[in-house]
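We read letters as residues; the integers encode the fold. Take this protein.
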Amino acid sequence: MRRIGICSGVATLVLALGAGAWAEGGKQDKGEVVKEGKVLVVRGLEGGEPQITDEANQRWMIVGPLREEALSLDGHKLKVWATVSGQKKLTMRTLLVKRYEILDSGGRRPVVGLLQRDGPLALSLERKEGNLDVKGPRPLLVQLDKKVGCKVWLVGDLEGKTLKAFKFGSISCKKDKPAIKSKTEKERKR
């Protein structure tokens, strides 16, 4: 009789631990988790620290190669696929984000892609799902034209393969950051 009680208690504990991992929005394999939440950038010396507050109201610091992109998404709701890195930063648990989707930007779901120029103020958005022609008010197109080659998000009305944009933001832009050549040994000695 006592063995059944112990086995039952162990089974309950195992189920509770498993449910806890799923309640955090994650998969148990390989430490990979999926989280949804709003990004908040806490400004600091290094340009800021992007955080995400998930559906369980837990705050996580975003680290890794997509950290820079997260800095430009302050206030947006994201869905992230990440691993819990195990390290803490500013007393917060950290997520090493592998990919993300923007779920909300001011009440609308934006479209994300690489901005291309097809002609004077004729722009398109290159995406995995297929390219979109970008239309909009002339002042918006003039501003977008300066972001050709950049990864951007656009909010607007989708009509077939045309997005009539009225709002945008830049996520990352390699042309904004010129390559810095490292000095050779001879140049350092001069």
